Amino acid sequence: MIKLLDRVLSFINYWWFRYLMITELYMVESWERVTIHVFLFAIFLAQWYFNCKVILPFTGNLLGIQPVDQHIASTLPRS
Fold it and tell me: How far apart are CA 64 and CA 58, in angstroms?
């Protein structure tokens, strides 16, 4: 179990190091790095929200696919 955890941490550290090297964030000060991370996280969340609320319903309507929660709600008996 410990060996598996070490491998997972090594994998995460490797990709974190690559991320810092590619974005060149290893050269900036820590407060700048945190600011950039927060900005990138906000961009990621905005993209995720846009995809879930705009793109998925649009493509579902375009292809005639009903979302799972609406499909379940339409099969429930109404009281």
Answer: 10
Q: Is 23 exposed, middle or buried (0-12, 13-18, 19+ CB in 10 A)?
A: middle
CB 33 within 8 A of CB 25: yes
Number of domains the chain is built from: 1
**55 φ, ψ (degrees, to nearest 5):** -70, -50
Residues of the domain holding 63: 2-75
CA dihedral 53, 59, 63, 68 (to 10 degrees): -30
Tens of pLDDT along 12-45? 999 999 999 998 888 999 999 999 999 999 999 9
